[in-house]
Design brief:
This protein is mainly beta. It contains 10 helices and 42 strands. The protein is elongated, with a radius of gyration of 31 Å.
């Protein structure tokens, strides 16, 4: 007999993820047990029914150990993934016994789902680790790697192989209070404590929000789990039999419950679907345990393995609630000269309260962090952490602190921040962004620009950005500044002041949706529709409730349109006896309302970052022109209403639908009417009409609609040979129709301008402008090409009838 209990843990030898629910049984018997959620097993001190113990998990090689050879307890067993072999296929006619239990789970999915709870509140504890693995020999020879060489084996326990080069980069613990309301759907997370150590991590509060429950929770009871903006169909969703194969493995008995272990695997290995095991209770049809994964064979970039493990327990109110969850992601090397990464997040839930009556406006702040949350002492964590830090994890935290203080590491962190953010910090100021230092357009020629940005060292309640620029051709200085003053971070009330004089392309550079994007840069590069704008703006915005923001703005601008090439803008100035003019002056006041009920915002050092979840987005704008103020020439009213809905369709991809209506009352020259964004560059833009030139169509009342559907490789995955490239399909369609009143049409002297370039069109014969496209994305994991056809208003022998546009993005 052993002196200590025969116990230990079972690990995935490749990723060192705990092997939940692995079988461990005695050789030549049917006696044994299974590991728990954390991969732990305990078989007592003996006597034992056999001299050998076998560990098994489907997809891994069996591990056999002789009792007499055991030297150390507790044991650490590392299972090795089995090599896949192709074997003959035997077709057996009959009823698959697994389907009986699958249908039971499907019939009771909604009843058993935690989403069926009207309201609840619970405490969540999340522990995460991130490490760099598979570090190539070339990287290990670099100056950076050599300076960190003594730390590479710090967490070799993560793989069970001390010969592998592993480097810890982050370890975190987050304790939160999470609240949920079913109707209307609202969630709230209050981060009560964070303990985060990470290389280059300077804002523990922001990381505490990111690592919280809101961004790391998934449910097998949902029809699909949305991961990386893609839908993964649940094995118990309606119609899942079309996607998955099912096999009944065995029955387990937990206390008085009988639980059926079902193996699931995708019928098409290229589809983004799960493989592994689910355990279904025989009486309720509830899924009580989950151990599934997505492998690198699926149409998912960079991820070699994505694993989920969950445990559910039934509440006295009826539904089942996830009490433990683990998500492990193994990121492969981008190239042979690069390194990979492995990240693991374990979440536990306690103190679940169902039927909580939340007070009014309780959900106003969806994600917040309590003051002092990232400064809790060790005694707090010893009392409140759901699981205590191991000796290895304490060593990791200590080593990460040491790494952060290495000069070489600091230099590389600063370099990465500069490349991503674009700004270089000098003292208490940031200067940049580097990608706008030099550019070219047809008005200025070569243009030099230097920008700046204040830092929290100057003020923690405001940020000012600004720039100066100079064009070699027009020999004129441009300048601008914008100051945001944060008055109250509870409702994010913000006062903004802006003044600038710069070259603009109406509809693009004055649109916050485009900013400093490549699309904007390439459209400016060759455009002749430029103007010199001097503008000032005062705005105040406030959140009335989660996702609902109201912004009031007063705006003044003067536009001067010099002749560039063949483009010449003129209008009859009604304030100056209809004299011809190339200058416009406008003052207006507006109010905008945006409601995005499923959006989330995270607080940063000064501002916040907003994340949009699948769902609706509503926007209303009313604008009033104010004449005779600072030389303003126009009295008008403008109203715009828009609606956008994003839907994830599980296997069938993701859809984005939008509709927009606009109307102007009063006299305005066409640059100030509703400007439809054309695209005269080779860059594709989802929000633009990609085969329309700028200012081609003009109206003072219009309706437009757009649709874009990403199939995520649903068709290409089924084509032999093609499916190896992980290509993905995109279908697009955009249409617009509007009318223009004569008083707005006649304000432009069409006889004095080049009709091919400067004369705009109106929609005729009740015919909308319509373009459709088919795209292929994920080419080389970063390129998207769209073929776009102009269906209506086609022009003889014009490149506007058909075009191919490119865009670049890296996504999973």
């Amino acid at each position: 007999m052993l002196k200590a209990p025969l116990q230990g843990t079972v690990w995935d030898g490749e990723t060192h993820d705990p092997m939940s629910y692995a079988s461990c049984y005695w050789g030549k018997t049917n006696k044994g047990s299974i590991t728990d959620f954390d991969g732990f097993f305990s078989l007592g001190k003996g006597p034992f029914p056999s001299d050998s113990l076998i560990f098994e998990y489907i997809g891994f090689e069996p591990y056999v150990i002789l009792i007499d050879t055991i030297k150390y307890l507790p044991m650490k067993i590392n299972l090795v993934r089995a090599v896949e072999r192709t074997s003959a296929v035997n077709i057996v006619l009959g009823i698959n016994p697994a389907l009986k239990w699958l249908h039971l789970a499907q019939d009771n999915r909604k009843k058993n789902s935690p989403a069926n709870i009207e309201t609840y509140r619970c405490e969540s504890f999340i522990k995460a680790t991130v490490a760099i693995n598979n570090i190539s020999k070339n990287i290990q020879k670099t100056k950076l790697a050599k300076s960190m060489g003594t730390y590479f084996d710090t967490i070799s326990y993560l793989t069970g192989d001390s010969n592998k080069a592993i480097l810890p980069v982050l370890i975190s613990e987050v304790l939160s209070e999470f609240s949920y309301q079913k109707n209307p759907y609202l969630t709230k997370e209050v981060v009560k404590a964070t303990r985060i150590r990470g290389i280059g991590v300077t804002d523990g509060s922001f990381m505490g929000q990111i690592m919280g429950n809101t961004f790391t929770s998934y449910s097998i009871y949902d029809e699909s789990m949305v991961v990386f903006d893609k839908g993964i169909p649940s094995p118990i969703a309606d119609g899942a039999e079309l996607i998955y194969n099912y096999k009944l493995i065995k029955a387990d008995y937990t206390n008085t419950r009988k639980v059926l272990q079902i193996q699931v695997s995708p019928k098409n290995p290229r589809d983004l679907a799960l493989s592994g095991f689910i355990w279904i209770e025989d009486t309720t049809g509830a899924v009580v345990r989950v151990a599934v994964e997505i492998t690198g064979a699926s149409n998912l970039n960079y991820v070699e393995k994505l694993k989920f493990a969950q445990e559910y327990e039934q509440l006295k109110e009826g539904p089942f609630f996830c009490t433990k969850m683990r998500v492990m992601m193994d990121i492969g090397e981008l190239s042979k000269q690069a390194a990979g990464m492995v990240a693991s997040t374990t979440t536990t839930y306690k103190n679940v309260e169902v039927g909580v009556a939340f007070p009014p406006r309780y959900f106003d702040n969806r994600i917040s962090i309590e003051a002092g949350a990232n400064a809790k002492q060790d005694t707090f964590w010893e009392a409140h952490a759901h699981t205590q830090q191991t000796a290895e994890e304490k060593r990791i935290a200590s080593k990460i602190d040491t790494l952060n203080n290495l000069p070489t590491v600091k230099s590389y962190v600063d370099l990465v921040n500069f490349l991503v953010d674009g700004y270089q910090r000098v003292g208490i100021m940031d200067f940049g962004p580097y990608y706008t230092l030099c550019s070219w357009n047809m008005l200025e020629g070569v243009r030099f620009k230097m920008g700046f940005r204040t830092t929290p060292a100057i003020s923690k309640n405001s940020v000012t950005t600004g720039f100066v620029a100079y064009g070699l051709s027009d020999q004129m200085w441009k300048y601008g500044f914008n100051t945001d003053i944060y008055l109250n971070r509870k409702n994010w009330s913000k006062l903004s002041l802006m003044h600038r004089r710069d070259v603009e392309l109406i509809g693009i550079t004055d649109n916050d949706l485009y900013g400093q994007s490549l699309f904007t840069a390439f459209n400016l590069f060759g455009s002749i529709y430029l103007n010199l704008t001097t503008q000032s703006r005062i705005s105040y915005g406030v959140d009335l409730r989660p996702g609902l923001r109201v912004t009031g703005t007063v705006y003044h601008a003067n536009y001067v349109f010099p002749q560039i090439g063949r483009f010449k803008f003129l209008w009859y100035d009604h304030t100056n006896n209809r004299a011809l003019s190339n200058e416009l002056t406008n003052t207006n006041a507006s109010i905008a309302i945006v409601y995005e009920p499923k959006s989330y915002s995270l607080k940063t050092d000064l501002d916040r970052m907003t994340f949009s979840a699948p769902g609706p987005r509503y926007q209303l704008l009313y604008q009033k022109g104010i004449p005779n103020v600072l030389g303003s020439q126009f009295s008008y009213d403008k109203a715009v209403a828009s609606y956008t809905y994003t839907k994830v369709w599980s296997m069938m991809g993701r859809s984005i639908f939008s509709i927009d209506a606009a109307k102007v009352w009063g006299l305005l020259p066409y640059p100030l009417l509703t400007v439809y964004v054309g695209n005269q560059s080779f860059m594709y833009n989802r929000l633009a009409y990609n085969q329309m030139r700028n200012f081609e169509f003009v109206s003072d009342q219009s309706v437009q609609a757009g649709f874009e559907h990403h199939l995520n490789g649903y068709l290409f995955n089924r084509i032999p040979l093609v499916n190896h490239f992980k290509l993905r399909e995109v279908i697009t369609s955009k249409a617009i129709y509007g009318t223009l009143h004569n008083h707005n049409k006649n304000v432009i002297p069409t006889a004095l301008v080049d009709p091919e370039i400067s004369e705009f069109k109106t929609f005729t014969k009740n015919l909308p402008y319509w373009e459709v496209g088919f795209g292929v994305e994920n080419m080389f994991k970063c390129i998207r090409l769209d073929a776009i056809w102009r269906v209506t208003y086609r022009e003889p022998n014009s490149p506007r009838n058909f075009g191919i546009k490119a865009s670049f993005s890296m996504s999973f």
